[in-house]
Design a protein that fits this description.
218 residues; mainly alpha; 7 helices; globular
């Protein structure tokens, strides 16, 4: 009985030690996070749900003009899902969602669908940081800054690239690049750094609370 008890105690202390090392070694979480480049069943489902939400909510505000584009607060969906599940989820949710919006509007623009995918792809690069894990509520102040920077960069790159194609095929520069891309990118960025970061913070707090409850229960 003593030996068994001692063995259980050692196992328990070992488990606590490993958890402590995994979570706090060098200030970096070493808990295994799913590869950013793996397409799992769960991620396929998330892509589907995210694309539908992004597509329908974008279409809902499609009638509100922003320069030569439309108001798109739904961009925060890409901010959230890309940070939560990685760049591939961000890309496909953005591209498929944009395709759905244009399909409902009656006009398909493949290069702009890819551009929306690029927004999600770049936004999801935050997932690659080893000390970031939104699913477990491991989000620090520096991460919010990185998320803002990546999303702003993603919006600029994702919208300017397809606009350059339109410019190259005859659309005036001011219309294609400034009106269709740069101004909407700045408006999207404003949504990201306000509503988007607030949404991420709320999810982070909720996930961290759930994680603490699970640890306490165990």
């Amino acid at each position: 009985m003593v030996g068994l008890a001692d063995g259980s105690l050692v196992q328990g202390l070992t488990w606590v030690h490993l958890c402590h090392e995994q979570e706090f070694l060098g200030g970096i979480s070493l808990f295994t996070k799913e590869s950013a480049w793996r397409i799992s069943t769960k991620r396929v489902v998330v892509i589907g749900i995210g694309a539908v939400l992004y597509g329908l909510l974008s279409y809902a505000t499609n009638f509100i003009p922003v320069a030569g584009n439309s108001l798109r607060p739904a961009i925060v969906i890409l901010t959230l899902l890309a940070a939560w599940y990685g760049p591939l989820v961000g890309f496909f949710a953005g591209a498929i969602g944009s395709f759905l919006t244009d399909l409902l509007a009656g006009q398909i623009y493949p290069h702009w669908e890819i551009g929306n995918g690029i927004i999600g792809l770049i936004a999801g690069l935050i997932y690659l940081f080893s000390d970031f894990d939104l699913d477990r509520g491991l989000v620090k102040g520096k991460h919010y800054i990185l998320i803002a920077v990546l999303n702003i960069a993603g919006n600029i790159v994702g919208l300017v690239l397809p606009s350059l194609i339109d410019w190259a095929t005859g659309t005036p520069f001011l219309t294609a690049v400034v009106s269709w891309a740069l101004i909407p990118a700045l408006v999207n960025s404003a949504w990201v750094v306000t509503l988007g970061l607030a949404l991420l913070a709320a999810v982070s707090r909720r996930r961290k609370t759930g994680e603490n409850l699970q640890v306490g229960a165990s």
